[in-house]
Amino acid sequence: MNLSDFLPDLVTRIAQLRRDLHAHPELAFQETRTAGLVAEYLSRLGLEVFTGIAKTGVVARLKAGTGAQAIGLRADMDALPLPELNTFPHRSRHEGRMHACGHDGHTAMLLGAAEALVRLRDQGAFDGTVYFIFQPAEEHEGGGRVMVEEGLFERFPMQQVFGLHNWPGLPAGSIAVIEGPVMAGADRFEIVITARGAHAAMPHQGTDAILAGAALVQALQSLVSRATDPLDSAVVSVTRFHGGHADNILPEEVRLGGTVRSFRPELQDALEEGMARIVAGIAAAHHVRAELHYSRGYPPTLNATEPAFLCREVARQVVGSEKVFTHLKPSMGAEDFSYLARVVPGCYVWLGNGSGEGGCMLHSPHYDFNDEIIETGIRYWVRLVEKALPARG
Ligand code: NI
Q1: Quick one: DSSP state of residue 299?
Q2: Beta carbons within 10 angstroms of residue 95's beta carbon
Q3: Residues whose CB is under 5 A from ligand 1 (ion)?
Q4: 273: Cβ–Cβ under 8 A, 6 or more apart, which residues?
Q5: Which residue segments constitute the domains of the chain, with CATH numbers given?
Q6: How many whole angstroms separate alpha carbon 234 and alpha carbon 333?
Q7: What is the CA(14)–ligand 1 centre distance, in A?
Q8: What is the pTM of this model?
Q9: How far is ligand 1, taken at its centre, from the CA of residue 165, in Å?
Q10: Cα(130) to centroid of ligand 1, in Å?
Q11: From the CA of 302, how far away is ligand 1's center (Å)?
């Protein structure tokens, strides 16, 4: 029996499961129903299942033959705090929560791949160990980081790790494999400027937090335009500027905040240092006090050369060269698969979600995962395992 014999039936069941997950979205670290369903599915397949990693995370182990190589396949399980505007029968049953990023599809496809691989193992299709990693809290909370901190790679040693995300706008069932940076690192900052407030008609009697803030917004842009290699990419966006409450009073305090994006850890360091320098300099120039609170978010997601090469080959075999994109620009969005891929060489690919119904962008209240790409997703995972852990003989 080969994959094509049982795949149609498997895809039908996985699509039903996907819609059930869509109807019952759960937020970061609260994915108890989802994790329960995942663990039960994997147990029924006869896999060794480990639960409670990063609260709701689940890992399952599938061993074939005697091979010492091991790889990890990762799916995310969480939904978003967003009211769903779709009206189809599988719309969210939970007010204010929604699977608007397709993690329902990622979870379902990886379960389908696990089932397929269990069946194929008995025919000697691969040799080695596959870890199925179902992580909580991809959205903002960094469930991937928590899994790593709780010993994911010590408990389950593996040489490579792989991720996949559906991508609206790319043709349904196409696959994008980008070597090197694929998603940005995302940091946050807040700057609190404290001045000596004054009557607006007598500014010389105080100091001006608004003017200092305005100067700061301008000066921060020089981090990208002057302090960053023109062939590197970075974004500094000031997205908040709060201060003042009357036309005739210069306020005591102004607060600014925003985000910093880049693709290289070294550049992340340089941007943070540069921001501190500019904040201190502008504060001195305007006789105000300025405090910078800079917090590191998700690191850049970097696809390592060898796994990216493997994924490209696999994608070509599964969907054909004309549906594999290798030269797309990376995204300035962020992804916590980066926490896994910075420990173990990895590759994270985009699976085209199409542009039809539900093809609207991720995090839209009208979004839906496209069930027509489930088959491609399962085929991709299965072929990847066969290529990464080749059967002997
Ligand atoms: Ni997502």
Answers
A1: P
A2: 8
A3: 101
A4: none
A5: 3-182+300-388 (3.40.630.10), 185-295 (3.30.70.360)
A6: 12
A7: 19
A8: 0.90
A9: 7
A10: 23
A11: 16
